[in-house]
């Protein structure tokens, strides 16, 4: 029994963003087909100033793989040791036997599969004539969203805003150089939001940034930043009369942006349209007209790590990439 | 940043049972010194006839390591694939940075550290003149208990009993050949128990096997088999007037043998003497006379995996054993 070892540089060559989008669609469909087991995740919080390490596991019956992702962040002193502030490792087990099939670096996968989730929601929920994006937040995940969404639509322009002007200018330079999409720095969040066909929020969720009145009819919102209790990016009133779609209702109503309007009584559970996987499976409609505001609230699921890393593993086997190691010799 | 890879055959050479006993003592002491974080573990149950895979994580402030153990069992069809019914993998992270320090096979560690836990309890709780063991159950863990306890006391004889005569005879042959300790097959569990200075139970916990009346004064009981809700090895009355010691009160009162007398009202929480780490630290007394019956109820803790695998890792570094691999090159 041999285990495949994959390093970060191999992984970046082994998977395209289109592959990740396909893997995330597969994950969402499996989740809403009763093919997924995802136990509550484990966290260990280290003494300050260190951050935490999380362990997320998922089983997918359609690919018969079990994944375990260990991801750490934020360790502000790591650069002193020549290390990034957060790292990751993924184990893949063959669910037939529970043999350890693969150990891979997990630094890239969270960013990739989260970016892909936005693109999947754009395919399902944005207007077909959408062309202008507003990006509130200009960090790594904002780049991942653009990288993924450009695979599924033609982006004419990006109106971007950030608390930090230096980050905003670097985002503009990077996106224009890498993708040739013009980025317009917005003087206020409002001026970006008002121009959006698709509004993406990827901030640290330190409080309401986007007001309901700014969002024009027909906008599709990709709400990424709020993934734990205490984070918030939107005025909760924005959920009133919007078509609300969650990746996981169980998660979003506890730790996603959807928690805020529920908590303040602006919506009830019945006002949540459904889960993205239900739309992908045709069990529920996606966008039904060009006027409705659609909100995709994404908190991230272990099963996305599962299908994405399983795709990387299959690509590695097909292309003879990686190093085999026998941890356990029968 | 490089990660050390250790395979099963290397691990078996890298650690002695005395090392494991030391590591388990370290774990118990750390646990009762507020130096441990152990989140609730994650389980994924596969469709039958397959078993489950569990993920247990622990952080130990005294060694600044974080461990994650993935362990699977029981997969009855695995022999068809040339694989054992259960397997394991351990990840070790340097808690200073959360860098992945080591990936090692985890097949041996659960058995070793569970065996060592019995020996630690014998040192703390058995009579100093104890020399006769009763072993109820004769499988792998029964062997591990003997292997560990012989490191801390001279065993004169073992009276062994098992539902399965073939297993009992194989146990006798193996123990006599390996350790030179005479094994007396007992015709009934009672006849073994009545002769015991130390009584070890390592069965599958399918119901009460040991009656209270059989246990003579001064006996130390090592209760291993019951580690999940639903298992049982003892008539609950045995806990009445015994000195009850748990590895973790939080665990034993929910899924250990200690649950049964609590549930039937034979004891209350106040009747539990304490945790083994408190005794090792001198916070509470161990055995106080030659007449009392002591019970060590062990459900197993992630922190035992942590300190044991961290010791293996340190031994590997000191002896230049293992293979380095760069999953993540800064």
TrEMBL record, chains A, B:
One of its GO terms (biological process) is carboxylic acid metabolic process. One of its GO terms (molecular function) is oxidoreductase activity. InterPro entries: NAD(P)-bd_dom_sf, ODC_Mu_crystall, ODC_N. Pfam families: OCD_Mu_crystall (PF02423). It comes from the Bacteria. One of its GO terms (cellular component) is cytoplasm. Belongs to the ornithine cyclodeaminase/mu-crystallin family. PANTHER family: KETIMINE REDUCTASE MU-CRYSTALLIN. This is Ornithine cyclodeaminase family protein. The lineage of its organism: Bacteria, Pseudomonadati, Pseudomonadota, Betaproteobacteria, Burkholderiales.
């Amino acid at each position: 029994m041999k285990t495949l070892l994959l390093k970060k540089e191999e992984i970046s060559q082994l998977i395209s963003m289109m592959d990740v989008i396909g893997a995330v669609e597969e994950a969402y469909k499996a989740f809403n087909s009763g093919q997924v087991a995802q136990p509550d995740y484990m966290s260990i919080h280290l003494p300050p100033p260190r951050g935490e390490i999380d362990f997320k596991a998922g089983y997918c019956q359609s690919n018969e793989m079990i994944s375990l992702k260990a991801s750490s962040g934020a360790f502000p002193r790591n650069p002193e040791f020549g290390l990034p502030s957060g790292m990751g490792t993924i184990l893949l087990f063959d669910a037939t036997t529970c043999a350890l099939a693969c150990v891979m670096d997990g630094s890239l996968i969270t960013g990739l599969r989260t970016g892909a989730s936005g693109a999947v929601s754009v395919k399902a929920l944005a207007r077909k004539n959408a062309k202008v994006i507003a990006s509130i937040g200009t960090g790594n995940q904002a780049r991942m969203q653009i990288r993924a969404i450009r695979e599924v639509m033609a982006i004419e322009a990006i109106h971007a805003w950030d608390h930090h002007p230096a980050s905003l200018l670097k985002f503009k330079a990077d996106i224009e150089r890498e993708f040739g999409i013009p980025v317009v720095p917005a003087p206020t969040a409002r001026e970006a939001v008002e121009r959006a066909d698709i509004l993406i929020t990827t901030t640290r969720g330190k409080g309401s940034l986007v007001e309901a009145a700014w969002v024009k009819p027909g906008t599709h919102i990709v709400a990424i930043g709020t993934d734990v209790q205490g984070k918030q990016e939107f005025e909760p009133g924005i959920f009133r009369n919007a078509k609300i779609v969650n990746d996981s209702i169980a998660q979003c109503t506890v730790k996603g942006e959807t928690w805020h309007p529920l908590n303040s009584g602006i919506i009830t559970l019945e006002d949540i349209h459904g889960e993205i996987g239900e739309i992908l499976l045709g069990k529920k409609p996606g966008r039904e007209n060009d006027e409705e505001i659609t909100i995709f609230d994404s908190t991230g699921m272990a099963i996305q790590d599962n299908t994405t890393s399983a795709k990387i593993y299959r690509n590695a086997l097909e292309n003879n990439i990686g190093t085999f190691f026998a941890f356990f010799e029968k």
